[in-house]
Structure formats: C-alpha cells, structure tokens
Amino acid sequence: MATLLLTAVGTVFGGPLGGALGALIGQQVDSAIIGSRTVEGPRLKELTVQTSSYGSTLPRHYGRMRAAGTVIWSTELIEHREKQGGGKGKPSVTAYSYTASFAVALASRPIADIKRIWADGNLLRGAGGDLKAGGAMRLYTGHGDQPVDPLLAQAEGIAMCPAFRHSAYVVFEDLQRADFGNRLPSLTFEILADDADIPIALIAGDIVPDAVATGLDEQLSGFTIDRGTAGDVLATISAAIPLACSVRGDSLDIRLAESRLAAPPASLPLPAAASGSDRAGQQAHHATGISRRREPLPRARQIALRYYDPDRDYQPGLQRGRGRAEPGDLAVIDLPATLGAAQAMRLADRACRRTTRATETMQYRVTELDAGVAPGDIVRLPAEPGDWRVEQWEWQADGVTLDLVALAAAAPGSPAATDPGRINLPLDLTAAPTVIAAFELPWDGIGERDRPALFVAASAASAGWSGAALFAEQPGGTLVPLGATGRRRAVLGTTTTLLGSGSPLLVDRRNSVVVQLAGADLALVDATMAQLLQGANRALIDNEIVQFGSAQALGAGAWRLSQLLRGRAGSEWAIDGHRIGEPFVLLDDALVPLDPALLGDAALAGVVASGLGDTLPVTSPVHGACTTVQPLAPVHGTIATGATGDLTATWVRRSRGAWAWADLVDVPLNEQSEAWDIALGDPDQPTLRWRTTEAMIDIPASQIVALPSGTPRILSIRQIGSRALSHALSLPF
Hints:
Layout: H1 2-30, E1 60-68, E2 70-74, E3 78-85, E4 92-107, E5 113-119, E6 122-125, E7 136-140, H2 150-156, E8 168-176, E9 187-192, E10 198-199, H3 200-207, E11 212-214, E12 219-220, E13 222-225, H4 230-240, E14 243-248, E15 251-256, E16 266-267, E17 290-294, E18 300-309, E19 315-320, E20 329-338, H5 341-355, E21 360-366, E22 378-380, E23 388-396, E24 399-406, E25 434-441, E26 453-460, E27 468-474, E28 478-484, E29 492-495, E30 507-508, E31 513-517, H6 529-533, E32 538-541, E33 544-555, E34 558-568, E35 583-586, E36 592-593, H7 596-599, E37 606-611, E38 618-623, E39 635-641, E40 647-652, E41 676-681, E42 686-692, E43 696-699, H8 701-705, E44 714-719, E45 729-732
Parallel strand pairs: 11-15, 16-22, 18-20, 25-38
Antiparallel strand pairs: 1-9, 1-13, 2-4, 3-4, 4-8, 5-6, 5-9, 7-8, 10-12, 13-20, 14-15, 17-21, 18-19, 21-24, 22-23, 23-24, 25-26, 26-36, 27-28, 27-37, 29-31, 29-35, 30-34, 31-34, 32-33, 32-35, 33-34, 37-38, 39-40, 40-43, 41-42, 41-44, 44-45
Helix pairs in contact: 1-4
C-alpha cells in the first residue's frame, strides 16, 4: 500500500524518477511488518521537554494537540532580594527569588489559541487562562500580520527583532521560577490549532496543495507533523487509516483505500488469455487471464494503536484490536493524532482485519482498460465475489495486467467497548481574589508581653488561591514588605445576622450568629464543653473573642454558630454594640504572624495583600490595635458607704496572659508597677480624678457632697499599664 501511495506522490513531485524513488521507499515501508525500516514521518512520542537547539523543526499542528515548544529567546535570571524580620531580638532574613523572560515557538502553522500550559508536569496556566505563577504571558498566533513583541523589541532593538510572522509563539515576561527550582521549567502547551475536529482531507490538502481528496471524511481531534516529507506524512496516516493515491491528469488523487463510495464500483470485462511470455519473464500460465494467490499469514497476530488521549491530558494511550488467536507478534502503529478511546479502538480493530489475516491477490488481464479505472479504485469482477482494489497496472503487448487485492470483509460487529483508563489529573482551579483581615490579639502569656501580637488571616473563595504577598502601608503611602501568606487559606468571613448582648460568665444559649465564609468549601466543626475549655473554636467577631460549641451548615458557605462562650481573653467590653457585616476570623494555626517592627504603629498602619487573582491590592486596617499591651479591666468591684458618708471602693485585679486562676495564688502583675486611675462623673470628662497604687480607694463624704448638681454618680476604674490604660470598670453609687 505504501508502494502505491509513495509512487503516486513521487510522480507528482518528481516525475518518473520521483515515482521510481517513491516505489522503492514504498516497498521498504510495506515490508516493515517483517522487520525492515519504517517511514521517517511524524511520530507519536512521550511528552518530551522543550528544546532550544538551533535549526530545530517547528511542527505543524491541526485540531487540538499538546506539544512542547522550542525556546527561541531568553534573558538571564533576574535576582530579587527581600529582607524580612530584624526586629527586636529577631534575626533578619534575606529571601531571594528569581524571574526570567523568554519566548517559546510553538508551530509553523497559524493556530487559534492555547489553553492549558504544564510546567514540569504541573499546571502553569489553567483552562480559564490564569497563570499559576507570577508573571505575564502573551500569545502570537502565527499570522502574517502579527506585530513585534514589545519586550523583545526593547531587549534586542527594533531593527534586530523579527516578528516571527507565520510562526506561532508565546512570550513569558518576568515568570516567577520559585516553584521550579529557580530554573527554566520544561513546558508543554495545549494548542488549539483549529476550532473543531479536522478531516483527513484538510491535512492532505494542506501538505499537498494540488491534491484532490476524495472520501477522506475521517475526523481527527488533532494531528501534528514534526518531520518527514508529504509522502512520509501520508504513509504515516495510511498505517492506521489506509490511503490510496493515484495520478489523475495533473493532480494527485487521495482516497481511502477501502472506501466504497456512493457510486457502485466499476465492473471489469471478462479476462483475456495471454499469449507468449508474461511479464517478469515467466511462461504464460494465464489460460483464463486470471492468476490468484493467497499470501501467507503475517507474523503480526495483533495490532495496537498508540495515540494521544485527550481524556488523559494527552498522554499516550494504547488500544488493541481483535486479532488472531494463533501465536505471533504484536505490531504497534504510532499515530501522532489526538483520538478518543472509542475511535482509537475502532481504528485498531480495522487495522487488525487488514494486516493480521492472509491477503488474497490476483493478476487480472484485460484487453482494454476503462479510462476511469486507476490504482486505488474499487472494482468488481464478472465471476469473482467481493470487491477488489486496483494496486497497480501494467501495459503489455497483448493487454493490460491489473494487480488486484481483495478487500477485507465487513466487520462482524462493533469493536469491544473501551475506555481511556485512569489518570490523576492536576487540579485546575482559577486563582481567586484575596480576602484578608489584620488584627492584634491579647497577650497569650508565652511570648514577649510588650511585643504586639499582630496577625493576618488571608483566604479566598476557592482552593485555586496560591497565596499573596503582604506589605505594611505606613502613613504617607510607603509600602514595606512583610513576607507572604503561604498557600493555606484561613477560615474567615463576615457576619450576616446581629450577635446580641450576653454574659461573659455563662454559656450563651440564647444568642446565635450566622457567618458567611469567604469560600463555600471552608468549614467549621462542633466542639464539646471539654474541648471549649481547652481553647477549641476560638474566633474573633469584630473585637470580641468568642468560642462556639455548635456550627450548623446552612449551605453555600453560610454557618450558624451557637452555644457561645462570650468575651473571652478579656474582650467582654466588646460584647455589646455588634452590627451586621462584622469580620469573622477563626483563630487557628492558619493565621500569619506579622513583625511589629516592620508594621510600625498598628493604629496608623494598614496591611496590603496582592496575589495572582487580585487585579488591585487588597487592604485591611489593624483591628484591635494595642490589644496585646492593654491591661485587662478589673472585676468584682464593690462600693461600701460608711456611717459618716465616706465611700470605700474595692476591686480585683486581672493580669494580661494569666488566663488560669489557680487557687491560693494571686495572678502576676505583668506590668512595671501597679497603678490605678479612678474617675468620678462623666468618664470622658470626669469631675474628680485619683490615682492609687492598690486595688481600693477611700473617698471622703465632703468630696461627695461638694459634687456639682447633675454629676453622674459613677466611678470608672482603669488599670494603668506599662503602655496603655485598661478598659473601665464602672461602679454606680
């Protein structure tokens, strides 16, 4: 078959000499099944790494394919330095990252688009067009009017920079290489060369422009040509989808070798007996003009087809047809085409029927040949059943000898059901915008008591979020790098209902609050009372720290929280005054600590985050600034009135970081000294004010009597800490 095909192709392009050379090559192709050489046409291969060799061939792609490219331009690695840390008692760390810009050529035929990109086997660009690493990408589809890339023009000079017209290529600018070991990764591209599946006729017409394609309606999802001549390409296709070529007039006719077209096959006349000697010097043995031969069984007992499977991210797939049961070899056809498993199984099954069973051939002599019959045509004989294909014919002195091959019988049934197999596909999640909340928490009693405990909770709506860079926005707009969030998403959101007032001394079973989490896949869990007492399910709602025992999923990322412990860690002052739309943050190990030395004054600074999914930076003020260093409000306040009208006020001190009240042991002071601020009257503009060094005060009756009329009868007691005043304990009298 390849002899016929390559003879015809060689005749069109090289005349008689080309036809002879094509026949020679075709004979070698036809003998491939018994161990001779194969056609040097396009080959299916494993997904190889990209190259940068000078003179490398740019392939032609059709339909949808996955292929590596050729690096045609690149910059050196660009080093980026970022200093982090270095605050009080902390070492500084200098982090280095690297970027590079480069261009990758994809095809010598215009393409429509590219979809996914894999870097070292991992997704670099998703189906939605989002890059999973920092940087920018530009695609040039390979048309004749494409412009010069601005980055290449700037680097090389406009006079020295070609536009690479008629070649599709991609330019990556400042691609982050941290995920690839700070080196250039091996890239493969999902190339959409055409908007739909392509018939073989399109490929044949593209590589042999003057050819006439007849009946080549077999659709391929994709095909690639990376080597070989036009004849080699057709021979490669013909191994799986048999083609027949013939010269008709001045053009090459290409059709399916086993195609039974709508018009009935031509009928040959009765055979004519030969006289004299037959061709090849043999004695005339055609008493009837017919010589039949049945070829021996081929060594191959089964045919397998290797192809690119789109259901397995274009990894090579293998389908075996139904062959003979006798011993023999397995022959594998490599077809560099994108096929579904069912189509590949059908082609493999047909190849088995063609090449694993004995072939019946015939030499048929006629005195006159119909001008419409040429090699590759299907004919019928007067006294022989079935259809026969004309392989070749030869003029002789006493007639025309036709070499005929019997067509395989129709398939006994549809091919066996098959599937592409399993593959662990990488997640392709679009990078979502960053959501952050910055805040300061009370001192936990472990670290430095006067070092602000600053944190950022960062998250996003989907798991496609890959983290964000953090910056401190100081007064005047100056940005100071704070590091990165990492890829783990914190559980945060906003309240959608009002959290009512409650008591910090009891389990709040009356109130509940509904929170809408940043992502629908984020989750909360229940906790027992024993777990709550061990610190489980701590959350920050605005400025109040609560714990919840029940988390009820309402769907779409909404959760109802109930069985609450209120005002935890000294935040009872924030129990009242809640509103709808307050930030909610689960206080777990997904929080990102911030360096207060880099952030500066938390009350004036803000935190800025920027990730791959953010079109604009995301900002957040620092909620609860100075909470770490602020003393706790005193408790258990009492006022006693003496016989003469004197007042004696007493209270109990609490201490930052001392959350466990041990029996018979007073809590530590955790301040430089004990000092109290006591105000009488309006807390904002008090009428009288005292300062003491112990948790009590005596107020003479004369001072009470001398108060102006209308003065509020309230004592506001605050502890004076090393860096801040506590919230007030209010004692009316």
